[in-house]
């Protein structure tokens, strides 16, 4: 087994060398040549820039000579036009010389200094000539012009020496660049050969490695697909064979545990069913003076249980407690707190139905049972069919909507402190008067916070618009229509549980 491991390790190392090292070496060869070529190109660019700057300065001197050319105008009668032309050319010469000085090497500073000295002398002679224009003799003017021309030609000669140095450097760089291009071609050929050789080595060395791995992957995918009854094909003599043996042992364990998991799932489904039954009423009761209908949809599938709940509590004198709530969190823990909340509230409401006192007692009871960072929102109201009134309190729950028979829709505002957060929380009771045809819509935040595919919330304003469309329908139609509207808005992908209770006064 040890020899086989060494053989496979050697194959892996060879494949690694073929796939990584060879291309890396080839890339280094090519990269170094390209960088060197780029450096030559950059240096040649710099030299050509120097050459251009020197040519511009030389051209400026030629323009100065042209200004004082006696063939164009009498030298003794230079006027403002010639002075302005000279000053413009002189300013341009100064700028071009400064730009040339920036790019030329230090070795040319001495020549440039002589050029600057010539410019200063030309300035002095030009000023003398312009100042004496019209009062200077032809012989004197010719003498000054001759000096200016001599200084300009001398500067041009100096600049030609600078240009010759640039040309020499360019020629040297061209020669080096041509030689480097030859090297680059050779290195590219070698690199290309290496790149062809690498995949060939990998194919030869890897075909003996890949096939058993592919087979093992097929076996693993078969197990993932749920086929646990067929044995894993053994591949003796290779390290992959040891993996296949391990995979077979895992398959055997999976088969042995499958029946246990199935039994456990059945048990869990029964327990979750019992717990869910404890959270929601088994059926909607007959409430005097009012139609009641509900809608509930969990945001998860499979074995799941939510924290949203509603309840109808029979009280004395034909009164009814109306409840909707939402326990933060999910799973068994949230469901347990939901059941505790529901039955604690029932107990308190039967003893004393006043909403503010019920919520305060419930808050103090649930605080020790509520983990940090979690809470419960509850809306609780008491329906009195004799007076057609509802006295209610709000523990941090979304405000219910009241749709009047005449078409007006309002939100039932109230205290908004969630239950299970602060022992000092206080809750108030409010009373509303209802009439025949009025409809009260209670809901959890999963309704208004459901999102469309574009990420928009359904929101309270859209809910109000939907309720306006449904005014006049019975409670069951309104509840189911609002529920369907929510599911369609979210394209069936609810992000939170949704509970709705619709209460319509007869």
Compose a concise summary of this entry.
This protein has a five-stranded antiparallel beta sheet with strand order 1-10-9-6-7. It has a five-stranded antiparallel beta sheet with strand order 2-3-4-5-8. The chain is α+β, with helices and mostly antiparallel strands and 506 residues long.
Structural write-up:
It is a single chain. This protein has 506 residues and is of the alpha+beta class. It folds into three domains: 2-199; 226-279, no CATH class; 282-505, 4-Layer Sandwich (Phosphatase 2c, domain 1). It is built from ten helices and ten strands. The strands form two sheets. Strands 1-10-9-6-7 form a five-stranded antiparallel beta sheet. It has a five-stranded antiparallel beta sheet with strand order 2-3-4-5-8. Helix 1 packs antiparallel against helix 4. The protein is elongated, with a radius of gyration of 48 Å.
